[in-house]
Design goal:
This protein is an all-alpha fold. The protein is built from 3 helices and no strands. The longest helix has 13 residues. The chain starts with 12 loop residues before the first helix and ends with a helix.
Length: about 80
């Protein structure tokens, strides 16, 4: 049986604590790349109107929570 990605809404308090702890641990600069900040930089570049490739990736649009044409595919690969 393959891994099933859990819905965040079904996590227990202990599972949430473990998840947040894991995310917090990736903020440390003493860990090997890619670090959390590296992922943040990629995501910010995907939304940057001044970045030559940013918005052309079609990941986001400028409307409130209006996904771009590649929103789901890009985020699936990104995650």
């Amino acid at each position: 049986m393959g891994y099933v990605r859990r819905n965040q809404a079904s996590l227990s308090a202990a599972e949430w604590t473990a998840l947040i702890g894991a995310i917090d641990a990736t903020h440390g600069m003493g860990i090997a790349a890619p670090r959390y900040r590296d992922f943040v930089r990629v995501h910010v570049a995907a939304m940057d109107m001044l970045n030559p490739v940013g918005m052309s990736w079609g990941v986001h649009s400028m409307g409130p929570m209006m996904p771009g044409r590649n929103f789901l595919a890009w985020h699936r690969l990104y995650l």
